[in-house]
Amino acid sequence: MAWRAPFIFTGKGEFVTCTSQKDTELFYAVLGGLGQFITRARIVLGPAKERVKWLRILYSDFSSFSTDQETLISTTGPSHKVMPDYLEGQLLMSQSPLDFYPQSQHQKITSLINQYGIVYLIEVATYYDNKNEDKVSHQSSYIPQ
C-alpha cells in the first residue's frame, strides 16, 4: 500500500491535497501524524508480502530511545528501501493499557514502569517474501535488541 494524494483538513481550517512531489513537507508530516486530518485519500494497493518481521524495543533512557528512533527514521522515506516499513514510538506510563502485549509480558512491563516511571517503546516492522528472509535479517541486525 502506498499513499498517493491525501486530502487534508489543516490546523488553519484549509482543505488541501498534497503528494510526495507537491507540498512535500505537509505530505510527510501528515504521514507522521502531525496534527492534520485526512478527509479522503488515494491509496495504491499492491501485492501483500508473505511475512512480517516485527519488533518492540523497550527503553528506560530517553536519550537512547530518541537516538535509535532518529536512526530508524533516517532509513525511511522515498529514497530508502531498507527498513522499516512501519515505525512507531510510544510512552508507557502507569496508566498505559497493556492489552496489545502478551499476558506473559504484563508483569515485566509493569515492573519496568514502576521502576523508571516512563518506559519508551519503539515498534518496527518490515514486510518481506520468504526469498528475502536472509536480507531482512541482515538489514535489521543494527536494531538494538
Automatic annotation (TrEMBL):
Superkingdom of the source species: Eukaryota
Cofactor(s) this protein requires: FAD
Gene Ontology biological process terms, A to Z: cytokinin metabolic process
Pfam families (UniProt xref): Cytokin-bind
Record keywords, A-Z: FAD, Flavoprotein, Oxidoreductase
Single GO MF descriptor: cytokinin dehydrogenase activity
The Cytokinin dehydrogenase 1 FAD/cytokinin binding domain, residue ranges: 50-139
Family: Belongs to the oxygen-dependent FAD-linked oxidoreductase family.
Protein name stated in the entry: Cytokinin dehydrogenase 1 FAD/cytokinin binding domain-containing protein
